[in-house]
Design a protein that fits this description.
- The chain is an alpha+beta fold.
- 18% of the residues lie in helices and 28% in strands.
- It has 3 helices and 12 strands; from the N terminus they run E-H-H-E-E-E-E-E-E-E-E-E-E-E-H.
- Strands 1-3-2-12-11-8-9 form a 7-stranded antiparallel β-sheet. It has a 5-stranded mixed β-sheet with strand order 5-4-6-7-10, with no helix packed on it.
- Strand 11 and strand 12 form a beta hairpin.
- The radius of gyration is 15 Å and the shape is globular.
Length: 165
C-alpha cells in the first residue's frame, strides 16, 4: 500500500500539474487522523515497508487506490486490515477483507464484502456483494473508520483547493 502526506502531494501538484496527473493517474482515499493521540491509528509501518512518509501530525493521509500485487481477489482493489489487501486499514473495526472497489470503464463502484461492521456510503449502509456507484468526494465509512474517495481529477482539484486555504 502506498500512502502519502498531503504536503508532499500538494508540492508535486503545484510544481508540475501535468506530471502529477501522469505520476498519479489512480483514485485516492483520504483519511484524517484523530486529534486525540490516544485514539486508534490506521497506519503503521509493516515489516515489508522500510520507511513511512514524513507525515505531519494531525494531517490527512492520502492512500493510493491501486492494485498492489496479485492476490486471490483479481476482480477489484481490496480494502481491509489483513496485509494481503491492496489498501490496508489497520483498525479493529475494519474486517480482514472489508470491501473492494471495482473499476468499470473509469467509473468506480464500492462493494461491501459482507463485513462484520458494515460499509457505508454517505451514511447509508451498503448491501453486501452489491456494487454501488462511488462518486468522487464521497464519504466512505468502513466500520468506525471514515475515508473520503476521490477520482484522480477530483483529487487534484481538492488538493489545489487545500493549497489555497
Amino acid at each position: 500500500m502506498k500512502s502519502y502526506s498531503l504536503t508532499s502531494l500538494v508540492r508535486r501538484l503545484i510544481v508540475d500539474p501535468d506530471g502529477f496527473a501522469k505520476a498519479f493517474p489512480h483514485p485516492w482515499l483520504v483519511w484524517s487522523p484523530p486529534e486525540d493521540p490516544n485514539e486508534d491509528k490506521i497506519l503503521s509501518t509493516s515489516a515489508s515497508e522500510q520507511s513511512q512518509p514524513d507525515f505531519v501530525s494531525g494531517e490527512p493521509v492520502a492512500l493510493a487506490v491501486v492494485k498492489t500485487e496479485p492476490n486471490a481477489f483479481p476482480f477489484g482493489i481490496t480494502i481491509g486490515h489483513a496485509e494481503n489487501n491492496d489498501v490496508v486499514v489497520r483498525h479493529p473495526g475494519v474486517s480482514r477483507f472489508h470491501a473492494y472497489l471495482q473499476n468499470n470503464q473509469g467509473r468506480f463502484f464500492l462493494v461491501d464484502a459482507d463485513s462484520k461492521y458494515g460499509t457505508f456510503l454517505g451514511g447509508n449502509r451498503l448491501t453486501p456483494s452489491k456494487p454501488t456507484p462511488l462518486p468522487s468526494s464521497a464519504e466512505v465509512q468502513l466500520g468506525a473508520v471514515t475515508l473520503r474517495f476521490f477520482d484522480q481529477p477530483g483529487f487534484a482539484a481538492w488538493l489545489d483547493a487545500q493549497s489555497r486555504s
